[in-house]
Structures are given as C-alpha cells and as structure tokens.
User: What shape does this take?
Amino acid sequence: MPVHGVELIANLPATADPAGFARMAEDAGFDGVACSDHYWMSAAYPHLWVALATMAATTSRVSVLPSFANNLLRSPFEFVQASVTLHGAAGGRYEAGLGAGWTEQELVATGQRYPSGPDRARRYREALLIVRELLTTGACSFRGDHYTFDTPELPPLRHPEIPLVASVGGPWTIRHITPIVDRVELKFGRTTRGGQLDMAALASVTIDELAAMVAAVREVRPDIDIGLFLMIAAGDGPQVDAVAGRFGSNLVGRFAGEPRKVIDNVVALSEIGIGRVQLTELAPGSLANVAAILQDIGHD
Assistant: This one.
C-alpha cells in the first residue's frame, strides 16, 4: 500500500542479488521493484529480463517493472515478447516500462552507434507506437524513419491490460510521448543529454523545475499518473555526507540524510502531483535504510 498516497518502487542496485533484494523490498512494504537496463556503468548490471523474472518468482505482491528497458538495446518486438512473458510469470503484476536509452559509453564500447538526442527521442516514440499496437492488436504494420514493421497477427502478444510506462523529461518527449502511454515517469533530460550522467546539472535541479514538468504533463494529459525517478542517499556516514554536501538545498539534496527525513520529503512530493517515486541509490545501503523506516511506520 502507498505511504500517504505515494507508491514507492525500489530499484535493484547493480551488485545486489535480485531474489534477496526483491524479498527485502516486499517484506518492508515497498509497492514495486524495478531493474535498470544497462550493460554496465560503474559496475556490470544483471541482465534485465533474467533479473525481473527472478524478482517476479520470489515475490507475490509487489509490481515488477523495467527501469527502463533500453530502447537502444532492445527491438520493440523483443520488448513486447519479454513483457508478455513476464506479465504471465508475475501473475499480472508486470508493468511495461520502456525508455529511450541515454548512456553512450556502453554502446560505443560494444560496437554500436550512439544516436543524437533528437534521433533517440524520435526513435523512442516510434518504438512506443509499435509496442502499443502489438499489445493492443497482436499485430503491427508501421513505416517510420527508424522502424519498419509488418508483423502478422500473433494472438499471444495481444495483452492490452499490460500498463505501458514511459520516461519523459524534455518538452518534446512530454508533448509527444505522454499521449500514447498509460503512465509517465519524470527524469531530468538535461542531466543525461550528453550521454552520461551530468552531476553538476543534477545538482542544479530545483523543486520548482519539477513542479513545472508536472504542470507540462498535465497540460497534455490531465488524468495521467505521474511518477518520478529519484536518486537518494539515506543513512549516515561519509558517503551520505558527501552527497548532501554536493547537492545542497536543491531537489536531490532533500533526499540525502537521515532515512526518515528522506521518506518525509518523498511523501511531500504528492503535493505537486507525484503519485509514485522510484528510489535508486546514490549511496550504498540507502534502500535497506529506507526499508527499515517503512517497517517502523507501516502503511496507511
């Protein structure tokens, strides 16, 4: 159950055991578990679909979702195929989260081309249109700038009940992606536009900027559910102190420090229209520290 109206999703750290992590998150009262889709960043990542299947098999209540499946690594058809399979494996608890992809190093180092920002965004929209059509009808005939699809009707792919979730950040994606999905999760596009996470840009993000993004989404779709991808450093010690010092009083700095303070500030995001927050670690151990607080305060 959500904490004071805000659903909490725990994002699997790259080095964590998926089964143990998912059980911990479910026992603590998180509403969902997620896994990012990278080859590596600071560490090698587990394979997305294997990790999600493991987390689905070892839980019974929480939702299970990609955060997000990387459109630069995945065919839209593979994404639908995997999504339908996981939907069944999770007993209907799966959500189909697809993202545009943003990390340059892992693509270039594995012999792939890294597209420009506008190309990534437009390719992303085309992929979501294909995914929506496949999930709705089980078939797809599509001609675009980035994809050509002519798939026959395949009834097992038709699962319109699977929620389609997208990550949006800049004005273009808010306008063009929001209308075609069931839920959006906000990310700050300017922090990853260069192909890597720009920590200085992330440190400059304000609560007013976030509120403006929520308002922009509402202009497009007043009724859509809005979530937020949020990096946290919950606990004490030098790593948490370093994050708090780096991010100061701006948005991310609100979520660095004592775990109860972090949770209280997450809950306060509901005041600007955020109904779900996906938590990922900036400091190791943050999610376990938050889990301990959730167990103490319980759910409404």
